[in-house]
Amino acid sequence: MKYVKNFKKGEKKLSMVTCYDYTFAKLISQTEIDCILVGDSLGMVVYGHENTLSVTTQMMKLHTEAVKKGCPDKIIISDMPFLSTRKGISYAMDVAHELMSAGCSGIKVEGVIGQEKVISSLVQSGIPVMGHLGLTPQYYQSLGGFKVQGRDKESFEEIVHQALLLEDLGVFSIVLECVPNSLAKQIQEKVSIPIIGIGAGVDVDGQVLVLHDLLGLSGEKFKFVRDFSSLNTNVIEGINSYVLEVNEEKFPSLDESFK
Ligand code: KIV
Questions:
Q1: Total domains in the fold of the chain
Q2: 198 CA to middle of ligand 1, Å?
Q3: What's the 88 CA to ligand 1 centre distance in angstroms?
Q4: What is the pLDDT of residues 113-170, one digit of tens each?
Q5: Which of 7, 21, 86, 162 could covalently link to 14 via disulfide, CB atoms 3.0 to 4.6 Å apart?
Q6: Which of 217, 247, 251 is nearest to 234 (CA)?
Q7: Which residues, in sequence order, are bridge partners of residue 175?
Q8: Does 161 share its domain with 250?
Q9: Ligand 1 atom index nearest CA of 79
């Protein structure tokens, strides 16, 4: 994963976006984005679940395949689903194998404590592993919801410790989600692999956002997201124009019909 690691040099920031399907993957393939995350956020964004806990390996596999077909030339990272790294090394290997066979170039694991052996076995097997610290959505029950992490001294230091541990285990980069800027800055300075932030401020090596959020499709307003587009309005207006023209018998025209 040399391409991603090079972003530590600080010459350019890495940009990453989630993607879950073929159509958006085709669009992303025409952009300058550096890499794609098939995040398990698909459980919420695509399937409407309240959290990511019910996302399965099969779901991750199918969405990874679809994204790979639409965007074969960019780096694709796929999320290891909830508990898949907690059922032993052999189980985690099988899941990672399925995801890699589906076309991703590496996998992402949330958290580190209790998963050290699994992470290092994956890395030693030639599977590029991306870490994920801070607000780790798969732990949202024990975290008490989707909350900013590392605000107090103890959790601040614990997250720094976990970032250093992940680096030692050989991960190639770390996603850092919803933490104070000062914590992100300290981790960015202390570890020698790229830190990719989401709600982690500007002092990191790159940024990742959920595609539907940055395009303004989700209708959600998070503090750390900016609407770079307002596709929701376009979609609603487009569908309503279609309904109107169907009702007024303006669609289809003769040109849009077969003779
Ligand atoms: O699942 C996901 O989309 C993620 C990003 C929010 C980083 O993990």
A1: 2
A2: 9
A3: 23
A4: 999 999 999 999 999 999 999 999 999 999 988 999 999 999 999 999 999 999 999 9
A5: 7
A6: 217
A7: 132, 196
A8: no
A9: 1
What stretches of 124-205 adopt beta strand conformation (E)?
129-134, 173-177, 195-198
Tokens of 201: 């401020």
Instruction: Assess whether 176 and 249 both reside in one domain.
Output: no
* 157 lies in the same domain as 213: yes
Both 10 and 102 in one domain: the answer is yes
pTM for the model stands at 0.96
Q: How far, CA to CA in Å, does 100 sit from each of 53, 93, 213?
A: 21, 10, 27
Choose the residue to mutate in 19, 59, 210 for probing ligand 1, maximizing ligand atoms within 8 Å of C-beta.
210
Residues 115 and 243 in one domain: no
153 and 77 part of one domain: yes
Closest atom, ligand 1, to C-alpha of 39: 1
pLDDT in tens, 184-208: 999 999 999 999 999 999 999 999 9
CATH (domain of 76): 3.20.20.60
- Cα 175 to middle of ligand 1, angstroms: 8
Q: Which domain covers residue 107, as residue numbers?
A: 2-228
Catalytic residue ranges: 177
For ligand 1, whether the C-beta of 79 sits within 6 Å is: yes
